[in-house]
Design the sequence.
């Protein structure tokens, strides 16, 4: 049995080519006169000999082997894999944006600067912050930038002992990682029986070394922490600041503003909530917003408006400096700007309403068939546990693999860590009821199979070009070169 798509080398036929050149009409110079002897090949390179059609089919077929949000449902909890409207791409490809060199004089880039300025204003309005920088290019990068700003703030006040960051046990892994990157010590705060921050544990752990508490709200369990006002008070009274991980803001648009609930710094992922593509480590954008007292520390330069002119201000003596070349990922910002303008304020509010409705619909129909640890209204996502299936020898990883047979991308699994065999599902607002019902049917079938025919699940996937892979090995020791 061959590979479903023959490798391009296996299609090779001696003498076949994909091009033809016109007759040479200049004198031919022997290669010996052009290159030193040591650099001349003794034998022809081993390249596939194929036609243009062979090459095109090969690459187009390869490109269709990957699951994508354009080809199927992608309920990847916390990661917000929503549909990416194509109008965003149209806007980004306008030559005035796409072909603008980042080093042109400011007077020739007024449109781009205006877009950046306006986008910063919109994001400040959405999050309830006083100023925003578009420079960071990922969520984790935004966290790093925000924590640098917090560190600079404490330092400027002579408050040198603030070197710890409090991180709840349900936090995204990037939170403690970013805190470590800026040289802070990480102290974990426990969740209570409702899946929210345990206030007793928080009180026991705040002291005068706390630089900040990093919080995701709704958290990665998809639960809104209703104690947020009290949490903010506890941290602020101890002299610490509140950091909002807004990577996934899909439940709060137009509903709650982090700035109104006590947060001092926030980052957003434009490549999640604001519909710009992500995955495969592609370009992202993780803007950071801050309250007024932190503005002096924002990354330089900042886009400023004077009269009806825009310019970049580098004269920011207290700034933490640059965190990325130029001004961030401009193309991603154009996409997010387009999305916000297309949706308008009411549209964004509707995004959150529909995202929350879709998640609750799935949660209501799947609970019972899968264990639900925190049985309450969820926000944009919820976390099931595969422990009922584990009793039959079927693990969450197996369920994830079996979903591939039905053309569904697996949800986020084994995260957050506080749920045994976690399955974290986020449908997003862009999916219709038919897709949600299809997913429910598939999940119920897998739950039945786990009881009646567990092998079918533990051996899955059956229909994909390759079955189970050594995922760690593939990432650590990738084989990128074909060898005969
Ligand atoms: C995705 C995510 C991050 C990290 O964002 P990246 O762009 O992948 O660095 C951080 N926090 C939460 C809650 C997330 O969902």
Sequence:
């Amino acid at each position: 049995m061959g590979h479903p798509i023959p490798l391009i080398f296996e299609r090779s036929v001696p003498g076949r080519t994909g091009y033809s050149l016109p007759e040479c009409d200049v004198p031919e110079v022997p290669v010996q006169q052009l290159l030193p002897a040591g650099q001349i090949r003794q034998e022809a390179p081993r390249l596939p000999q194929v036609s243009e059609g062979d090459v095109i089919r090969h690459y187009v077929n390869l490109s269709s082997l990957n699951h994508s949000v354009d080809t199927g449902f992608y309920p990847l909890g916390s990661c917000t894999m929503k549909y990416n409207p194509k109008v965003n791409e149209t806007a980004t490809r306008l030559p005035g944006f796409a072909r603008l060199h980042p080093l042109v004089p400011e007077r020739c880039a007024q449109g781009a600067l205006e877009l950046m300025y306006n986008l910063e204003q919109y994001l400040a309005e959405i999050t309830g912050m006083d100023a925003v920088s578009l420079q960071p290019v990922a969520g984790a990068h935004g966290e790093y930038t925000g924590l640098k700003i917090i560190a600079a703030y404490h330092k400027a006040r002579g408050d040198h002992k603030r070197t710890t960051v409090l991180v709840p046990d349900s936090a995204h892994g990037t939170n403690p990682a970013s805190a470590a990157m800026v040289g802070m010590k990480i102290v974990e705060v426990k969740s209570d029986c409702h899946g929210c921050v345990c206030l007793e544990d928080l009180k026991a752990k705040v002291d005068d070394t706390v630089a900040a508490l990093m919080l995701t709200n709704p958290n990665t369990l998809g639960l809104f922490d209703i104690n947020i006002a009290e949490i903010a008070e506890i941290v602020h009274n101890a002299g610490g600041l509140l950091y909002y991980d807004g990577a996934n803001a899909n439940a709060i648009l137009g509903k709650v503003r982090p700035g109104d609930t006590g947060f001092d710094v926030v980052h957003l992922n434009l490549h999640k909530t604001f519909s710009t593509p992500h995955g495969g480590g592609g370009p992202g954008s993780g803007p950071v917003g801050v309250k007024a007292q932190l503005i002096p520390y924002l990354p330089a330069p900042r886009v400023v408006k004077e009269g009806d002119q825009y310019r970049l201000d580098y004269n920011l003596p207290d700034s933490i400096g640059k965190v990325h070349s130029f001004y961030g990922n401009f193309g991603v910002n154009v996409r997010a700007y387009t999305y916000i303008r297309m949706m308008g304020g009411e549209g964004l509010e509707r995004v959150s309403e529909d995202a929350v409705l879709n998640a609750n619909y799935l949660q209501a129909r799947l609970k019972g068939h899968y264990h639900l640890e925190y049985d309450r209204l969820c926000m944009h996502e919820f976390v099931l546990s595969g422990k009922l299936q584990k009793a039959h020898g079927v693990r969450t990883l197996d369920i994830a693999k079996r979903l591939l047979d039905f053309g569904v991308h697996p949800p986020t699994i084994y995260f957050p860590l506080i749920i045994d065999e976690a399955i974290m599902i986020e449908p997003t607002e862009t999916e219709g009821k038919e897709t949600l019902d299809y997913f429910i049917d598939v999940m119920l079938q897998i739950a039945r199979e786990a009881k009646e025919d567990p092998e079918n699940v533990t051996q899955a996937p059956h229909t994909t070009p390759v079955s189970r892979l050594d995922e760690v090995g593939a990432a650590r020791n990738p084989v990128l070169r074909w060898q005969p």
User: Anything to note?
Assistant: The longest strand covers residues 210-215. Residues 42 and 260 are 72 Å apart (CA to CA). Residues 78-79, 138-140, 172, 174, 216, 220, 245, 247-248, 269, 284, 286 surround pyridoxal-5'-phosphate (CB under 6 Å). Residues 31-63 form one domain.
